[in-house]
Amino acid sequence: MDQMMTPFKSTTAGLVSVLALAACQTATSQEPVAEPDFMEQHQGLIILDTHLDTPANLVQPGFDIMERHDAALDYSQVDWPRMEEGGLDGGWWVLYTPQGPLDERSYQLTRDVAIMRAVAVREMVAANPDEFEMADTAADARRIANEGKKVVMMSIENSYPLGTDVSLLETFYNLGVRMVGPVHFRNNQFADSGTDIQQAYGGLSPLGEELVREANRLGMVLDGSHAADDVFDDLIELSGAPIILSHSGTSAIYMHPRNIDDERLRTLAEHGGVIQINALGSYLKQFPENPERDAAMRAMRAEFSTSPADMTEEEYEVYIARRNEVDAQFPPERADFEDFMEQLLHALRVIGPEHVGIGPDWDGGGGVIGLEDVSDYPAITQRLLDEGYSWDDIGNIMGGNSLRVLEAAESHAAELAAAATTE
Ligand SMILES: [Zn+2]
């Protein structure tokens, strides 16, 4: 927390520091005490996150989205109270499935996991209708945010669960999916991954090209995060609508397969796209090896026969307590707010505030010292103001750009539909 660049940790903390400053000022001072309406202006922005991995927590026994959690204790970074505190209006809630074998049986099993994840998101909305609402369109998302509710759209991270049936994407569209990323850590039936050992296709597979056409037809935004550079190039070439990198970084600042070079950044912007900068430590900087921690984590995981999502509430508590023990004994090296800002400011310098946004990878491994959970968005806003960006720029960075990309996908789909009827 020492590295935090702003006094505004939260509404309450911000108010306390303003009062403290006011108390120190002499009555004759002409200097404004602080931007008095900073939090009001920040809260007035539409802030959308393009990659909320929170659905993985929704299926966790005992997790209640309406309860305030503590990231330092249970690693959770998103819930309604902290969204309120940080001014986060919602965004794209991720249906993530890890990559498995490319066979029909595995496709079916994973398809069911993805569908049940979507059901969990819809159940969250159904259980809290005054707080959350599903958004069908970008216009809908604006309306919901302006009404003070949280916007819920979904995104697919790894299209693996679609199997070889691209038409299944429409089923996910009907469940609320408005963004789709073809691939995750390893090559799959659609595309090469940025982090696999070798390439399978040199870009998209023929099935991946079908996926792009189907996403375009439905008006879903294509997400190039995790994809190999050749896949990025193919997406740019094939997609009739701008694409997004929902949680990525820049390789000019740190060379990593999850980051993108400046030339491709410019191409992305020229095609109307947006990069959402992530805050995942190992994509921001190089850390020294920590074999003792790695061994302790492996040993800890081996103690549990079920994965966290399948644990009972009691088992999960034991698991979290053991994780806390390992963290206390072998603390992980962590990146900080400045490492994140270096990435964000670089992307802003290269392609400008209409093509850059924020996608820290909350509940998916993101978060750095000073940017611990979604209550910390005001820190980013304050820092962008300090860097000279206007409130309009910040509005685009925080949500305007991602909504514009969604709108472009919607209008491209409408054009395709109109062209199809006149044929
Ligand atoms: Zn990811």
Distance between the termini: 60 Å
Ions and ligands:
zinc ion
C-alpha Rg, in Å? 21 Å
Helix and strand composition category: alpha/beta
Average pLDDT value?
Answer: 91
Beta-strand content: 5-15%
How would you describe this protein?
- This protein has 423 residues and is an alpha/beta fold.
- It has two domains: 39-287 and 334-422, TIM Barrel (Alpha-Beta Barrel), CATH 3.20.20.140; 288-332.
- It has helices at 11-24, 38-44, 55-58, 71-74, 80-86, 104-127, 138-146, 168-175, 206-218, 229-238, 262-270, 281-284, 291-302, 313-329, 337-351, 377-386, 391-422, and strands spanning 49-52, 90-96, 132-134, 150-157, 177-181, 221-222, 244-250, 259-260, 274-277, 356-358.
- β3, α7 (138-146) and β4 form a beta-alpha-beta unit.
- The protein starts with 10 loop residues before the first helix and ends with a helix.
- Residues 157, 226, 247, 361, 364 line the site of zinc ion.
- Zinc ion binds at residues 157, 226, 247, 361, 364.
Please give the structural blueprint.
Layout: H1 11-24, H2 38-44, E1 49-52, H3 55-58, H4 71-74, H5 80-86, E2 90-96, H6 104-127, E3 132-134, H7 138-146, E4 150-157, H8 168-175, E5 177-181, H9 206-218, E6 221-222, H10 229-238, E7 244-250, E8 259-260, H11 262-270, E9 274-277, H12 281-284, H13 291-302, H14 313-329, H15 337-351, E10 356-358, H16 377-386, H17 391-422
Parallel strand pairs: 1-2, 2-4, 3-4, 4-5, 5-6, 7-8, 7-9, 9-10
Helix pairs in contact: 7-17, 13-14
This protein binds zinc ion.
